[in-house]
Specification:
The complex is a heterotrimer of chains A (327), B (348) and C (281). Helix content of chain A is 76%, strand content 1%. With 327 residues, chain A is an all-alpha fold. Chain A has a two-stranded antiparallel sheet. In chain A, helix 3 packs across helix 15 and helix 8 crosses helix 9. Chain B has 348 residues and is α/β, with parallel strands linked by helices. In chain B, strands 1, 2, 3, 4, 6, 7, 8, 9 and 12 form a nine-stranded mixed β-sheet that branches. Chain B has a three-stranded mixed β-sheet with strand order 5-10-11. In chain B, helix 2 links the parallel strand 1 and strand 2. About 3% of the residues of chain B have low confidence. By secondary structure, chain C is an all-alpha fold. Chain C has a domain of 163 residues: MetI-like fold. Chain C has ten helices and no strands. In chain C, helix 3 packs parallel to helix 6, helix 6 packs across helix 8 and helix 9 packs antiparallel against helix 10. The longest helix of chain C is centred in the N-terminal third of the chain and has 42 residues. Classes of the chains: A mainly alpha (327), B alpha/beta (348), C mainly alpha (281). Chains in contact: A-B, A-C, B-C.
């Protein structure tokens, strides 16, 4: 076994091992310091990242101040940069993604954790978690060639005809736009919602379920009225995590958002998101202020995702801890 | 101990691999091949790709890697010093030239045309576009394909009542500059409202990346309208219309009409080769044509690089010009070629 | 009686509805696979794996340099990211009590959530700008900063899962802490740790956004880490938004290859190496 092997090794002296052993006696210190050093490097990397974002965006921040977040004009020629269309686009596409993916994801998670037989649940979960491994650019590929033509005709015109009285379904149908980006984002974040919600639901102690069933509840009632509320923090956490992912998604969104910095009420309209504009304009920001503005957008996105992620992890932690430290 | 030895050996190997690659991280490449990096316009990308590929075949030790990211990108990366040369269809402005640490020289390479391309299912006849129609579509004042402005010039063609889905460039583009430069000359309203530039505030339409992106979008979207360099429409068998020039003739972009567009300027080329040929005089001239330039630093420190670049320029002005026609670009006028050959010596 | 019937009805209905949700999610994966296999499979040929890209408009060519380029960039990222991630994971698992480790853990989690495009900006600022060139190194650095947090997390997770008894046994027999970690704890957790590393590498191999302005692109073989390098995800992006039918065909083929690698790595890691211990982030 591993332990006895270690013994016999240290029992057999080797020429090099001698000096090595001598150093190893203080090795604990060395090991501690070595790993500590690397751990500190993480703080260094994070600090450097934040510093680079701040220092490279200083020109734009000084020039536009808080107005940067409130202006909607993005005009590289005139040197006017306002982040509002991108913030709007980023938020809208994420909201659409959540609206589509949360019911689906939660339903699937409930099924997989509560209502399905364990073997089927494991197999299906395995497959769904594989979805999370699909690279963004492949989702983009599918979005461009499969989703956009479908949206352009027949889906969006249909929505326009039937629900056209609602502003979000008005206007010409290009295929690309907020809706296309929202749908592909929904597909991308669903595995995360399912996976983490399922975990949170599984962490609920069986006693809770059994208590409900003992009181005469059906499986569904026990699930919906007892288990889900118990796990709600984790579920909400999963939604926030999904949101954070959706906000930062670049490639798939860039390919179908329409690249138009505008704020429009209709989901059929083309728009722009923060990651998409950075991806498109970074290499050709002709003026320093343009580059600075793009990096400031990156900073905004960074701060936004940090806050949401931190929040989300807190919730997931709270729920799984609660489940496992049940007295 | 064995496991530790393996771990140590493994990390030594990894370090060794990294160390081995470190020397090769210097710009001087392995085994005598030179890699020259360039970036810029998508307008001439097909001919540049062909040239660089052919030049590499003739000189296997020289690799010219060109990334088509748009003219704005070419200028930007050249100024940032991350590429060895840039490419642009819009000449650098004086301000941009001032930003550069070294002098930047413009070398025209080919003549190309920007054509109005469209996707109209069911319309097989070629459309004729007047300057007013083009400006109106881009301004958004004409919204449907069967608008009077278009119908007038296209009698006998049944234009559908669908909305025009217009697409433009989302990034800084020389092609946009040529297009908007033309629109500014022919439409006072456009000049006042939008103006010309590599990047403008489009009143309407969707953004796409590169000539490739615009062509791709128009190709896949029915009832769409965009502006692309001629070769993109030709290679992908997309419909493109003729444009009415300053003499009132409806001219379709081709080698002859593009060459005619440069005729007036050819004999009076400025020394720095920066010039615009949109809406030129001449009854056969295509009104939306342009030179496109390679942006070469005036001083190249590394002699190997310098000779590779100057060698390519010389080849480009001689043999390279013969290859342009096959890709629908017009070769440079003889006078320009002569002037340029002399200008190569300006590269120090 | 009818109320009881109604509750049973709802129960059955919800069962079906939620099952439908789960099935839909599963079907999406098969839809993706189907599309890629159908479009990509037809496009895949030997040329794809052996040829360099051709100029636009010319038929044929392949993405051989992009495949190798991706491997180069991922290798750089792994060489930088795996040792750092592993050692920090060891630190957090073995010496991880107190406020400093908490801080480190928190920071690693934060880094995990940073969008990949922002990592691209970071690598541009610290590698591309000072060196004045786009390079595989810059791309690798960008990807490594994405790899490190996931590696830390999984390493710590699996090291912590090693039972105390093993550690205490080693210590009781006189091994130093260092030795017990290196020879007992790590080997006991190696399966899970390796799984985490493979999953991390699989994730960064598919990243495209951070490479757009770090490793840039190259039509030729990249002979050095200091040169711009083609990569499979970026090629897919470039080709997909172009108008050339042949490029679309190649984009599908590339997508299929990329997805196949992703899925194989993921499935292999989960099934073979650490049955039942797989976890996502």
């Amino acid at each position: 076994m591993a332990v006895s092997a270690a013994l016999s090794e240290s029992g057999a002296p080797e020429r090099t091992a001698d000096t090595l052993l001598a150093r190893l006696r203080t090795g604990d210190e060395a090991a501690h310091l070595l790993t500590l050093g690397f751990a500190a490097s993480i703080l260094l990397i994070a600090g450097l990242l934040v510093w680079e974002l701040f220092s490279n965006s200083v020109d734009a921040r000084r020039k536009f101040g808080l107005d940067f977040l409130l202006t909607s004009k993005w005009d590289p020629v005139a040197g006017q940069f306002g982040a509002l269309p991108f913030i709007y686009g980023t938020l809208i596409t994420s909201v659409v993604a959540l609206v589509l993916s949360v019911p689906l994801g939660l339903g699937a998670a409930i099924f997989l954790s509560e209502l399905a037989p364990p073997r089927i649940s494991d197999a299906l979960t395995f497959i769904i978690e594989l979805l999370a491994a699909v690279p963004s650019v492949i989702y983009g590929l599918l979005a461009v060639f499969a989703l956009v033509p479908l949206l352009r005709d027949p889906i969006q015109p249909f929505l326009g005809r039937v629900f056209g009285f609602v502003p979000i379904f008005q206007g010409p149908s290009y295929g690309v736009g907020f809706l296309a980006a929202g749908i592909i984002l929904a597909i991308m974040v669903v595995p995360f919602i399912i996976s983490i919600s399922r975990e949170s639901l599984l962490a609920v102690p069986t006693e809770q379920r059994e208590a409900a069933l003992a009181l005469g509840a059906t499986r569904w009632e026990s699930t919906w009225h007892v288990v889900v509320p118990y796990a709600r923090l984790g579920i909400i956490g999963s939604i926030f995590l999904a949101l954070a992912r959706a906000l930062g998604e670049t490639m798939a969104v860039t390919m179908v958002i329409g690249n138009t910095p505008q704020i429009a009420a209709s989901l059929f309209a083309p728009g722009y998101t923060i990651p998409a504009v950075i991806a498109n304009e970074f290499t050709e920001a002709t003026s320093d202020i343009h580059l600075s503005a793009l990096i400031e957008l990156g900073l905004v996105l960074f701060l936004l995702t940090i806050v949401i992620n931190a929040f989300a992890r807190l919730m997931v932690l709270a729920t799984t801890k609660r489940g496992t430290t049940h007295p | 101990m064995k496991k530790q030895k393996r771990l140590v050996a493994g990390s030594v190997l990894a370090m060794g691999l990294l160390a081995w690659s470190l020397p090769t991280m210097s710009p001087a490449e392995a085994a005598g091949t030179i890699l020259i990096n360039g970036a810029g316009a998508t307008f001439p990308f097909p001919i540049y790709a062909k040239w660089f590929s052919e030049y590499h075949r003739l000189h296997p030790d020289i690799q010219i890697n060109y990334q088509s990211i748009g003219s704005g990108g070419g200028i930007r990366q050249l100024l940032a010093g991350t590429v060895d040369f840039g490419a642009s269809d819009v000449p650098m402005t004086d301000e941009q030239l001032k930003q550069s640490k070294t002098k930047v020289l413009h070398f025209p390479t080919v003549l190309g045309a920007v054509v109005p391309t469209y996707n109209l299912p069911g319309v097989s006849k070629e459309l004729k576009f007047t300057p007013e129609a083009l400006a109106a579509i881009q301004l958004g004042t004409v919204k449907k394909w069967n608008d009077d402005v278009l119908a007038k010039a296209n009698k006998g063609v049944k234009l559908p009542a669908n909305e025009i889905v217009s697409v433009h460039r989302s990034e800084g583009s020389g092609t946009t500059f040529v297009w908007t430069d033309y629109l500014s000359r022919v439409s006072p309203e456009w000049k006042a409202k939008v103006g010309s530039g590599a990047s403008v505030n489009w009143p309407t339409g969707i953004g796409a990346k590169g000539n490739e992106g615009v062509a791709g979008f128009v190709q896949q979207t029915p009832y769409s309208f965009g502006y692309v360099e001629l070769i993109y429409a030709v290679q992908n068998k997309m419909a493109y219309g003729s444009v009415r020039n300053s003499s009132g003739t409806d001219v379709k972009a081709d080698l002859a009409s593009v060459t005619a567009a440069a005729a007036a300027v050819a004999k009076n080329m400025p020394d720095d080769f920066r010039v615009s040929i949109t809406n030129p005089p001449g009854k056969d001239a295509y009104p939306i044509a342009s030179f496109t330039w390679l942006l070469i630093p005036g001083t190249i420190g590394d002699p190997v690089r310098k000779s590779a670049i100057t060698g390519f320029l010389q080849w480009m002005l001689a043999d390279g010009q013969k290859m342009t026609g096959a890709l629908s670009y017009a070769p440079l006028p003889k006078e320009v070629v002569m002037k340029e050959t002399g200008a190569i010596s300006r590269i120090q | 009686m009818t109320h009881h019937y109604w509750r049973k009805l709802v129960n059955g209905l919800m069962f079906s509805l939620t099952a439908a949700c789960a099935l839909t999610a599963v079907c999406v994966l098969f839809w993706i696979l189907g599309f890629l296999v159908w479009n990509g499979g037809r496009a895949l040929n030997l040329d794809f794996f052996t040829q360099l890209p051709k100029p636009p408009g010319e038929l044929g060519g392949g993405m051989a340099n992009a495949i190798v380029g991706s491997a180069q960039i991922v290798l750089v990222a792994a060489v930088i990211g795996i040792p750092i991630g592993f050692l920090v994971g060891v630190y957090l698992a073995e010496f991880g009590m107190g406020s400093f480790p908490f801080f480190v853990r928190y920071t690693a989690d934060l880094l995990n959530g940073v969008p990949s495009i922002v990592m691209g900006i970071f690598a541009y600022a610290i590698v591309v700008r000072p060196l004045h060139r786009f390079s595989a190194l810059a791309g690798g650095v960008a990807l490594s900063v994405i790899l490190i947090p996931t590696t830390i997390r999984t390493t710590e997770q699996f090291l912590r899962a090693v039972p105390r008894t093993l550690r205490e046994g080693a210590l009781a027999l006189g091994a130093s802490k260092w030795k017990s970690i290196a020879t007992i704890v790590v080997p006991a957790a190696i399966r899970g740790v390796a799984t985490g590393m493979i999953l991390g590498i699989a994730r960064i191999a598919g990243e495209s956004a951070p490479l757009l302005f770090t490793s840039f692109g190259n039509q030729y073989w990249s002979t050095s880490l200091g040169n711009p390098t083609a990569s499979l995800p970026v090629m897919i992006f470039t080709y997909a938004i172009s108008p050339y039918a042949d490029w679309h065909r190649q984009a599908w083929a590339a997508g299929l290859v990329l997805l196949a690698v992703m899925l194989l790595l993921n499935m292999g890691a989960r099934v073979v190496l650490a049955p039942g211990a797989a976890h996502k982030t």
